[in-house]
Amino acid sequence: MAHASPAPGDEWRSPLMQDALERFSAAADALALDDELRMRLAAPRRSLAVNFPLRMDDGSYRSFAGYRVQHTLAMGPTKGGFRYAPDVSLGECAALAMWMTWKCALMRLPYGGAKGGVRCDPGTLSPSERERLTRRYAVELLPLIGADRDIPAPDLGTGEREMGWFMDSYSQHVGRSVPGIVTGKPLVLGGTATRRTATGVGVVHVIAGLLERLGSDVAGSRFVVQGFGEVGATAADRLHALGGRLLAVGDEHGATAAPDGLDVPALARFVRDGGRLADFPGGRPIAADELMSVPCDVLVPAATARQITAENVERVDCRFVVEAANGPTTPAAERALGERGVVVVPDILANAGGVTVSYFEWLESQQGAHWEDAELASRLQRRMRTALETVAAVVEQREVDWRTAAMIVAVGRVAEASRARGVYP
Length: 425
Known about the structure:
Keywords: NAD, Nucleotide-binding, Oxidoreductase
CATH class of the largest domain: Alpha Beta
Number of strands: 13
Strand content: 15-25%
Largest sheet: 7 strands, mixed
Protein name: Glutamate dehydrogenase
Mean pLDDT: 96
CATH superfamily of the largest domain: Leucine Dehydrogenase, chain A, domain 1
Binding site for substrate: 79, 103, 358
Pfam families: ELFV_dehydrog (PF00208), ELFV_dehydrog_N (PF02812)
Shape: globular
Strand order of the largest sheet: 10-9-8-7-11-12-13
Low-confidence stretches: none
Radius of gyration: 21 Å
Structural class: alpha/beta
Order of helices and strands: HHEEEEHEHEHHEHEEHEEEHEHHHH
Binding site for NAD(+): 199
């Protein structure tokens, strides 16, 4: 009996990949890319799907699925985080790897994009189970990774600890210490103190630059932040320090709001001590799905993908959406926001601070060098501001929205490199 062949791209099909391809196609149309380049850039270059057993603390064994996707090799080695989450999939990794390519190109980093992860609930794993999971995942990726081939980094559910385990596992297998195999490492292993907060700090540089272009300032502006993890908490803290008013903040469990602005340092201490945002005594509790309807100047989605959708976009009440998360706004929602005059500053620009400082850390590891924190902070600010000005110039010249402008710059650079390298053999 004959079976229908899968359509091209079926391997990657997911809502997130559809969003990524829709935005790529818009940029490709604006650049008038030929069919060959569209074909080469619309699908990941390489992918690895693995299944492996893991011995649990009680002596039982469980099977875990893991992935690593490399979008393009045209720009240099690939770069991107790996995550531990229940919904990790090949399609999700493919979309995020593509976005990482555009992000690196926009920031002029010599990388193609990659992404990976293991499908699991990290909250249910003990520290020893996490360590065994990380080490086994590292070994499964040996055919693809290397300090000059593919360099992982932290993402959802992972951090410095996992990067230390990953680095050690790889180093044990090659017989020498290779600090450049990952970024986001502990400081003692060659990490940078600025990496942990880099994404949130980069978001604030973009917000400040955007407001300055419009003759405004962070001081006195009103902000709402969705997500209070590392990125959201850092952005909230820096905006508060610059005089911004954080009117509301929330996560999947609930939210808190204060019309005159929240005391962000007190809120951060409350959460660090185990408190829930909705229980913060300095604000009033609101439902998580009410957060985006709080009127503000800048909404900062800093949680997960596809948070602003066609179903809730009418409740969004702001002048600007600055995407601190990857893919938080669906294309349909973004079109609706544009019709209302709301400016969306895309993730490939707004949250590029993390990969930029990862690049600095990688350079230090490769060269055996060390830069002071002040130097790294200055380099990050210059990179973010330069990218912002580059995108703003395209917005004005082509009279397009900010995402289209950012994608035109990024896709154009990758297409140029791909064209220059040709097709082998």
